[in-house]
Design a protein that fits this description.
Aminopeptidase, seven-stranded mixed β-sheet, 14 strands, alpha+beta, single chain, globular
């Protein structure tokens, strides 16, 4: 494997502000590789380590590694939406991945998982395999998503939407739905909406302290906005949109059970598009659709028929109408660092599956 002799910067020598500036300016930089994201994940038990390669005193490649300690003591090492590197430079990639692996081994991790922010291609899959990684069936972040092109005008973006979606956006305005930027004082109400949505749609939500930490970390510097849809003083729905560099991401959304016929969620997404455009973003990532759509295993319009199946199918039915492009990433790639640790993990997973099956059949 080709390597380069660039100096390796350990975590203690990487200034968080310099790191974030590097991530924000890099073509493969991502929100989940920022120091602020690692501070947020620390609230739920993750530890962070950054490693970088430098040239002439500047960072040229790097990775933010998140660690989660497992019950038997070994940590799971994870690089979300990274590393941040020019993937067309094999020597640079090889040296960085060697440094990342060394960090994970020094912490006695049983596995190292990468989820690069790269579109799927057979060329990139072969390269990752050449670096000693294997494609994983277990992803952490959604592998498929929808990107809305924000370089177009507002009229062009609306024209690319399905007719009903344009109608619903205008309907919300005509019926008196308003969208405003949320303040920290709105977080308890947003949390209640999240809990209502989680119970209705059967997914877990974070606690109020987590969303408050996210607000404090990302809202003041303009890296995120809480958008709230209201009708006659009643909070109907809310979304949280993040932005870094030229990309914005819709990560969290919640809605109540009343006045849904007023289409507050359509109004919120249109407000998010406008917010992201005003920040200079070129892409709005709607974050997560069924991977069967991204992989081309089903026709895109089957979302109408599969929405009742739950999971991401109902989400896809909503997101597909905004006229974006389906994007599939290269996926998650694993390198086993400890075979005994991996055996324990698989055994624990098997026990959990059997317990869940017994509970379901009880």
């Amino acid at each position: 494997m080709i390597s380069t002799s660039l100096p390796v910067l350990p975590h203690a020598q990487i200034d968080p502000a310099a790191w974030d500036a590097f991530v924000a300016s890099h073509a493969h930089g991502h929100l989940l590789q920022t120091s602020r994201w690692s501070e947020l994940k620390a609230r739920v038990g993750w530890q962070t380590e950054r490693v970088a390669l430098s040239a002439d005193g500047a960072i040229v490649a790097g990775a933010q590694i998140l660690y989660r300690r497992m019950p038997w003591g070994q940590p799971f090492a994870y690089v979300p939406k990274g590393p941040v590197v020019d993937w067309e430079q094999p020597a640079l990639c090889a040296s960085l991945l060697q440094a990342v692996e060394q960090c994970a081994r020094q912490r006695h991790s049983y596995i190292l998982k990468l989820e690069p922010d790269l579109p799927h291609s057979q060329v990139m899959a072969r390269r990752l395999a050449g670096y000693g990684f294997a494609l994983s069936a277990q992803t952490v972040q959604p592998r498929s998503t929808v990107h809305i092109d924000l370089t177009a005008s507002a009229d062009e973006i609306l024209a690319r939407m399905k007719q009903k979606w344009r109608y619903n956006i205008r309907l919300a305005g005509r019926k008196g739905v308003t969208v405003r930027v949320g303040a920290r004082a709105d977080l308890p109400a947003f949390q209640r909406l999240m809990e209502t949505t989680g119970q209705r749609d059967h997914f877990g939500v974070h606690n109020l302290a987590y969303y408050a930490a996210a607000f404090d970390l990302f809202a003041p510097p303009g890296l995120a906005t809480w958008l709230l849809a209201e009708y006659e003083g009643e909070l109907l729905a809310g979304i949280v949109v993040f932005a870094l560099g030229r990309t914005a991401w819709y990560l969290w959304g919640a809605s109540g059970d009343s006045q849904r016929q007023l289409m507050p969620n359509h109004a919120l997404q249109w407000a998010a598009v406008q917010w992201a455009q005003a920040r200079g973003c070129a892409v709005y990532d709607l974050w997560g659709i069924p991977d069967e759509v991204g992989a081309g295993e089903v026709e895109p319009d089957v979302g109408d028929d599969n929405a009742s199946q739950g999971g991401l199918w109902g989400v896809w039915r909503f997101k597909q109408g905004f006229g974006g492009q389906v994007v599939r990433y290269v996926g998650a790639w694993d390198k086993v660092l400890s075979r005994p640790g991996m055996w324990i993990y698989r055994l624990a997973a098997q026990i959990r599956r059997r317990a869940a099956l017994l509970t379901h059949n009880a």
